[in-house]
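Our example pasted here:


***
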Amino acid sequence: MSRLRFAANLSLLFCEHAPLERFAAARAAGFDAVEIQFPYALGLEAVADALAREQQRLILINIPAGDWANGDRSLCCDPRRLDEFAAGLELALHWAKRLNIPRLNCLAGTLPPDLSEAKAQSALDCNLTLAAKRCSEQGIELLIEAINTEDLPGFRLHHSDQVVDLIKRLDLPNTRLQYDVYHMQIMEGNLIRTLQRLREWIGHIQIADVPGRHEPGTGEINFPNLFKAIEAVGYSEYISLEYNPSGPTSAGLDWLQPWITQDRTA
């Protein structure tokens, strides 16, 4: 029997439903845990009600990253927006405490126009140090994600080792790597070896196939071998489905059935 546990990312899955209806759709498909990239526009109490109604856990959200729809790709690298990042961090922490969210993810972002590399790195270091400190004080784990530069050109952290080296250099408490299989297959491949080598630094895993960012089985990644490797290294947290379904979400979940554990307790 598989020990793996799976969560649904409601920012990408079940998008055939209105945002607040996706919780029920995910529960009907068998998910007792969900994550949302940026849930803030949904309203804190509305999300709390949906989670309670469906008896689900919200296991991960992102720290606000500015106006994503209008081109922002995080505030973390911009020294002119330190106060805005700090306010967004406190908002994320408020959500985490209210909803018992165990982890917050931070996006490093891209180099702002007309800003030197040195100033951007200094701002990133400052903001990550603050985020790690505040999360640690609240008993929440901070995650830092590496993202591929094909989808997001210029993203500052785009390899697993970059994130781990940064955590070590800054001595960030209670901070680990968010390992997104889709991004890392594009940037570095060698997924199983990386899982084995960096196991202690991996706090959360997300999955999608390459190319296309669709469900497992649509691309080049050997997910049965990958899942066996995840089990073998002793990873026991949720694996989040963060992909763009090829069609209606539930119709594309057949790949998951052999891996669903009967023990879905948190």
About this structure: The longest strand covers residues 57-62.
